[in-house]
Amino acid sequence: MFRYERPMVGPPKTLYDLRKVEGAVRLTCRACKRRQLIDREELILMRHIARETCDWPAFCTSAICCYCTSRNVKVEIEAFANGLPELRRRRATMITIELALILLRAASDSGSRRGLPVEAVRLALRAVHPFLQDKALLTEFWVRYSDPDPTLGESPAGYYADIVRALLKRGYAVPAEPRI
User: From the DSSP assignment, how many helices (H) and strands (E) are in the chain?
Assistant: First the structure.
């Protein structure tokens, strides 16, 4: 009836095996000496977005430093990392971006404009700003959204797509549904 999940022994076969030990991945660049802790779920999501395999050996050989783009990277498993403050911050960032993009997508659809409060759109734009660092893009989205006659002007849907592209370019994992 219940499936017994045995603990992981030895190196994992896929990134999904990190779930058994509540693990995260720590990348250490040998070139610039920077260290980065990546949540396993964020890593799996990024690999799916890029249509790359989640096999552990393939990930270890394709890992790059996000700061200097060096391929000389040491990959380590950080077991039982759920309580680490750095990892909690990354998860909070991922959740914030995901929720803000859901609201912005709904705001960019012309049919749901009347049902979505203006305050929710402003809050979503404000939540995305620290991660995007592009005020002009967010301002253009707001101008298109707050246009009283949306039939004459441009819809904010194009600016929504630009926001998602900019977030992906900056290295944030964006769920597949908001990218549609």
Answer: 7, 3
User: Residue 74 is inside which H or E element, if any?
Assistant: strand 73-78
At which residue do the structure tokens 């749901």 appear? 112
Q: What gap in Å lies between CA 78 and CA 44, rounded to an integer?
A: 15
- CB 40, CB 80: distance < 8 Å: no
Tell me the CB-side half-sphere exposure of residue 167, using CA atoms within 13 A: 29
Which pLDDT tens digit goes with each residue over 135-169?
Answer: 899 998 888 888 766 665 577 888 888 898 888 88
Contact 63, 139 (CB under 8 A): no
- Contact between residue 78 and residue 23 where contact means Cβ atoms under 8 Å apart: yes
Q: By percentage, how much of the chain surpasses pLDDT 90? A: 15
Range list of H helices, the chain: 40-49, 56-62, 85-108, 118-132, 135-145, 157-169, 176-179
How many other β-carbons are positioned within 10 Å of the β-carbon of residue 177?
A: 10
pTM: 0.63
